[in-house]
Amino acid sequence: MIEPDFLRTTRTAYDSMAALYAESFANGLEDHPLDRAMLIAFADLVRANGGGPVADLGCGPGHVTGLLHSFGLDASGVDLSPEMIAIARAAHPELRFEVGSMTALDLADDSLGGVLARYSIIHTPPEQLPRVFAEFHRVLAPGGHLLLAFQAHDDPSELAESFDHKVALAYHWSPDRVADLLSKTGFTETARLRQTAPPEAERQFPQAHLLFSKV
Ligand SMILES: C[S@@+](CC[C@H](N)C(=O)[O-])C[C@H]1O[C@@H](n2cnc3c(N)ncnc32)[C@H](O)[C@@H]1O
């Protein structure tokens, strides 16, 4: 099968700066209390539904996969970039990390208690997003939870706007439109957080965290 260009360019870009990325995000999100709060809520919800494996899709260097593990989850990671996966394996030898794409996951139907996609849908062209959400829905077991985080914008007339991300072409998304798409895929909304960008941030995009479940 011919690989779409966006996957090839995203992989090449992250491969070339994986070590730098890992250095920048070496701490356990101590300086991101709201991100941590959403991850803790996600972990609690997954456990309340009986646990089950949790996949961190687009896990990068695995720092958040490690955090989920520290919250008591059976967490593993998948990433497009072999360099990211090599770093994640070295940093967390006790956890499973595999190279793969969220557009076609090598995971069985109904096999997961939770899916995390933290800033990893941002390089997906908008027309490919329904395919990615269908994959999330396919691999989650009934009652499973999905936590999505992404750079947002406040214009619901546009699903996505592109921006000049440091690594590769990226999109920030309308939380309302993403939520609509998730509902059409069969997910039910549990909660959402809109975080204002701090004044010192390079880009003044709000950050969205959407928590959904598969009924
Ligand atoms: C901005 S980084 C986020 C990494 C990590 N989730 C975090 O919270 O820091 C985006 C990551 O998503 C991965 N990624 C992008 N598109 C992907 C896809 N289709 N399938 C799997 N991983 C993907 C990239 O390789 C990169 O490691």
Describe the structure.
With 215 residues, this protein is of the alpha/beta class. It has one domain (5-214): Vaccinia Virus protein VP39 (Rossmann fold). 35% of the residues lie in helices and 27% in strands. It is built from seven helices and nine strands. Strands 3-2-1-4-5-9-8 form a seven-stranded mixed sheet, with helices on both faces. The longest helix is centred in the first third of the chain and has 16 residues, at 33-48. The radius of gyration is 16 Å and the shape is globular. The chain binds S-adenosylmethionine (SAM). S-adenosylmethionine (SAM) is lined by residues 7, 10, 14, 25, 57-60, 64, 78-81, 84, 101-103, 118-120, 123. S-adenosylmethionine is lined by residues 7, 10, 14, 25, 57-60, 64, 78-81, 84, 101-103, 118-120, 123. Keywords: Methyltransferase, Transferase. GO terms for molecular function: methyltransferase activity. Pfam families: Methyltransf_25. Residues 54-144 form the Methyltransferase domain. This is Class I SAM-dependent methyltransferase.
Outline of the structure:
The protein is an alpha/beta fold and 215 residues long. It has a single domain (5-214), classed as Vaccinia Virus protein VP39 (Rossmann fold), CATH 3.40.50.
How many separate helices?
Answer: 7
Architecture (CATH level 2) name? 3-Layer(aba) Sandwich
Residue runs with pLDDT of under 50 for 5 or more positions: none
Distance between the termini: 33 Å
